[in-house]
Amino acid sequence: MRFSSVLASSLICVSAISADFETSKDNVVVLDKVTVSSKIEKNILNEPTKVEVAGKETILESPDLAKSLLKVSGFSMTRKGGGGSEILYRSQGAGRLPIFIDNSLLQGGCGGRMDTAITYISPENYRSVRIIKGPQDVRFGALISGAVLFDRDILRLSQTTFSGNLNALYGSFDRRETSVNLLGGNELGSLQATGGIYKSGDYKDGDGKDVHSRYSKKTGALIATFTPLDDTALSFSADFGSGKAAYADRAMDGVKFDRTSFGIGLEQGFGEHQLNMQAFYHEIDHVMDNFSLRPNINSATSYMYNNPKREIKGIRAEGVLNFGDITGYIGASYSTDEHSSRVSGGTSSADKAINLALSKPYTKNAIIDYTSGFMQGEYMQDDYGVFSGVRIDHVSVDKYTSGNLSMTRDQNPVSAFIRYERYLDALTLYAGLGHAQRVADFWEFSKVGGMDLNKEKNSQIDLGSVLKDDISELSFNLFASKIDDYIMLDYRNTSSVKAFNTDVMMLGGELDAEVLLQNLFKIGGGASYTYGKNLKNTNGLRDGDPLPQISPLAFRFLVGLEQKSWFANAQFYANAAQHRYKEGYGNAIGKDLGYSNDFWTVGLYGGYKYKNYQFLVAAENLNNTLYSYHNSKNGAAISTLDIPATTRVYEPGRSFWVKFKAHF
Questions:
Q1: Would you place residue 58 in the very low, low, confident or very high pLDDT band (cuts 50, 70, 90)?
Q2: Of 602, 655, 660, which is closest to residue 171 (Cα–Cα)?
Q3: Where would I find the TonB-dependent receptor plug domain in this sequence (predicted)?
Q4: Is the pLDDT of residue 403 over 50?
Q5: Would you tell me how many other CB atoms lie within 10 Å of the CB of residue 21?
Q6: Which of these, 84, 59, 371, lies nearest to 213 by C-alpha position?
Q7: Bridge-based pairing state of the strands 554-562 and 521-534
Q8: Nearest C-alpha neighbor of 391 from the set 142, 147, 144, 103
Q9: Could you give the CA distance from residue 532 to residue 520 in angstroms, rounded to a whole number?
């Protein structure tokens, strides 16, 4: 059996309109399950390392993306409170795991990463999520650990269609979610509207103590398509979002998370070939303060207000050339990324802090220009495939101090890969070699010494296999990498965080298995592990020291029953203790805080489908474990709320939710 396409890439794909109610090849209803199948893909080939999320909570509908992605082996997360969670793949995130929406890079604005890219993404607005593992692709960017891509594609309808989805959820800690998705159109075009409201109160940890974490979020999108010819398709999109969230790891909360995005897409066919073009604009408007979502200590100089803003705009063009067994991708892109802010502090009231900040013009902090070109190819035969590509970027950084240009730097990172895949009856084997280079991102070059950093250079070997038959699937992935000039941050002096280069080694892998017995009993599981080591004596580090911010061994197990119209399962998730750490050192996301304990949790999930309706229920962390992830931030003391400091921000304790879904 041949599993064709881009290896080391996992595709998680559902239809934004109707996949929840479609049936699989075996006529089994897929109840809220994120999976890959030819039925619900659009112009995307099956991946040889296909991933299925073991849980029934669809990634494309969950506002907690970081938590949902833990169901994909290799992912871990960083908790900060009610928002701003970080996603990590093989313990790497931020600039090493870029996040793209419709082929454009999205970034947050906060200098302390209060708002990460996923803060502004409304998953239900996209038709698929794709995960690229390692530097095994060059079409989208320089990928050190990989990439996460949210895609819409341009929707084509074959007949007049009017449909929609309505979702409503209520859960513990006053968690409420409502979203709607409407579609109308025909073979000449379509109009789609989506919207959602998500909110929750402060959750309680496993000890029953409040965690400063309440949030609210509103999202909306309009997508229009024009498909006058079989070979021509246009799309126009507008995305809007607003929100606020309490943070348990710092002295301020996020009281404004506004995103405005516009996009234009073109797909033009020329016989067997195709031209794809996109233009995009993203504006991030973020506000943090220390008085809106928590009581202020009310001293004469205690009120603070900070308003960073980010604008990203650009264009991308790609030609897809098909010559029988050979497919080629040739493309180029340009984008500019401008960061600015306005701040007030030391005022005696909230009004004074707000008015003072808003009376100021934005002060420019940085402008980053990216110019890129790439070529990628695939040669496919019945029993094997060869894949390769090369990418060249030109990155220009202008750094501003007090609004004045202070430093400029130009760098030219190069990335390339080659991979061989072997297709047997029920087995796919692969081996790949990749090299990716990246420059320091905004959070790195803004630190002491940041503008003197060398390019980070990752050389990586990927090996793996996937074994699949009618009732089972087993996949195994291994990687080993040597990263020269790895960018690390020294947090030992918190008032002057230093950025520097070192050399490191990383290796690890993921194992996933799933089997369906008697078309009823389902058993599945997965495990992942990453090992990291410093290889250089520099800045207080010694050769052989542990690489900081490495997540421990993770394990998950699922057992349950699944039928055409209902399912019930139990899920077990565990992390080992992490004994390997380097306290005071870290990356753009955070620093090592020391040893972390092992933990395990159990959850129960069930669902029932009747005609066009679905009902889902869940009990999560049923054993009410007090736990935190190794890479989560430290819990700050909030005296006005009688919240003491904790080593790390704890995860929610025992919780329940019920969800109703309707398709019409």
A1: low
A2: 655
A3: 47-146
A4: yes
A5: 19
A6: 84
A7: antiparallel
A8: 142
A9: 41
Q: Which two tokens stand for residue 200?
A: 């929750």
Residue 61: its pLDDT value, please?
57
Instruction: Give the whole-angstrom CA distance, residue 435 versus residue 465.
Output: 21
According to the model, what pLDDT value does residue 570 have? 96
φ/ψ of 526, rounded to 5, equals: -160, 155
DSSP string, 433-480: EEEEEE---HHHHTSBTGGGPPPEEEEEEEEEEEEE-SSEEEEEEEEE
DSSP state of 432: E
- The span from the CA of 304 to the CA of 375, in Å, is 48
On the question of pLDDT at 27 being above 50, the answer is no
**In 324-426, where do the E strands start and end?**
326-347, 363-380, 384-401, 404-411, 414-423
Extract the tokens encoding 394.
Answer: 């030109």
If 0-12 CB within 10 Å is exposed, 13-18 middle and 19+ buried, where does residue 26 land? exposed
Strands 613-620 and 655-663: antiparallel
What is the DSSP secondary structure assignment for residue 292, as one 8-state letter? S
Average pLDDT, the chain: 89
Domains of the chain are 9-260+267-663 (2.40.170.20)
For 135-165, how does the pLDDT look when each residue is reduced to its tens digit (9 = 90+)? Answer: 999 999 999 999 999 888 899 999 999 999 9
Task: Tell whether the model's pLDDT for residue 269 goes beyond 60.
Answer: yes
Amino acid present at 25 = K
pLDDT, residue 125, reads 79
